[in-house]
Design a protein that fits this description.
The structure holds two protein chains of two kinds. By secondary structure, chain A is an alpha+beta fold. Helices cover 22% and strands 38% of the residues of chain A. A four-stranded antiparallel beta sheet of chain A has the order 2-1-7-6. In chain A, strands 3-4-5 form a three-stranded antiparallel beta sheet, with no helix packed on it. The longest helix of chain A has 22 residues. By secondary structure, chain B is mostly helical. Classes of the chains: A alpha+beta, B mainly alpha.
Chain lengths: 118, 170
């Protein structure tokens, strides 16, 4: 290990930590947004207990919202990466399924959304 | 006309690509055992780092892009070619910039390459998904690329010390 190596390591790690802090912020999450290929599929309250089937031309996923946590229980894709990602509960966090072009993201919002709005 | 050394260089590049493909394939078989948000040490990228050191910028670029392309065709699907190729381009450019600086060893080069690979890959994911959400993963990937980059940097260091073949074909 040389001096430059340590600088590179610190810089890369710092960039990651900065990005993490920048994206998560201090507000608590309360809205779950599901996007398919960049367009909004549905918006749900994080406090609701529902299971959403997201079926699009790219594939199907099942998203579960339960006790303030969001997770994916089923996916038609091959790598099942978004299922392995587990549960998310903080704003800025996302579950992403690249093959199905699915994004489940958590937003911290000022106004409360209690019902499903398309 | 191909000289003997040009033939040797072509042959060696082909060998590196093949080695990279096999390493990547074997590593992918182990991935489902330890899920780490898609993070892996990236043994196949050892080959790319070695290539950056031993056979020059242009050749390393060819080796990296070929490896990403073929591994997409053979194993991981066509979409992954876009991620892999962009990642490789970013990382080879960055690694090439600092490889001959005396203050950087293989470890620094490898960590930088790994970080740039993640950035390139995530930018493509952002473009494909038309969303900034993958940036969230970039933070984990960048933090993870430090230990993974250190491991592969040390491995490259050992490889280059032990095997004459990785030192360079001129």
């Amino acid at each position: 290990m040389k001096k430059g190596d340590i600088i590179v390591c610190v810089l890369v790690a710092a960039a990651g930590i900065f990005l993490l802090l920048f994206l998560s912020g201090n507000v608590s999450a309360d809205t779950v947004e599901i996007y398919s290929s960049g367009t909004l599929f549905g918006k749900y309250s994080l406090s609701s207990d529902i299971t959403v089937d997201v079926v699009t031309e790219f594939g199907s996923n099942t998203v579960c919202i339960e006790k303030g946590n969001v997770y994916v229980t089923h996916s038609s894709c091959d790598d099942k990466n978004e299922i392995l990602q587990g549960k998310i509960s903080h704003p800025g966090q996302s579950l992403i399924c690249l093959p199905n072009k699915l994004i489940v993201t958590l937003k911290g919002r000022r106004e409360n959304v209690d019902s499903i709005s398309y | 006309m191909l000289t003997a050394s040009a033939t040797k260089k072509t042959l060696f590049s082909a060998l590196l690509v093949t080695l990279g493909l096999v390493l990547g394939y074997v590593e992918n078989m182990f991935l489902p055992i330890i899920p780490l948000y898609g993070l892996k040490i990236g043994f196949s990228n050892l080959v790319v780092i070695c290539a950056v050191y031993q056979s020059g910028f242009k050749n390393a670029l060819v080796i990296g892009v070929l490896k990403a392309f073929l591994s997409g065709v053979l194993f991981s699907g066509l979409m992954s070619i876009a991620y892999g190729v962009t990642g490789i381009l970013f990382s080879v450019f960055a690694m090439n910039l600092i490889k001959n600086k005396s203050s950087f060893s293989e470890v620094g080069v490898s960590v930088l390459g790994s970080g740039m690979f993640q950035i390139g890959q995530v930018l493509v994911a952002c473009a494909v998904l038309n969303s900034a959400a993958p940036l969230y993963y970039l933070s984990y990937l960048l933090i993870g690329s430090v230990p993974c980059g250190i491991v592969s940097g040390l491995l490259v260091h050992i490889l280059r010390k032990r095997f004459k073949i990785f030192k360079g074909v001129k």
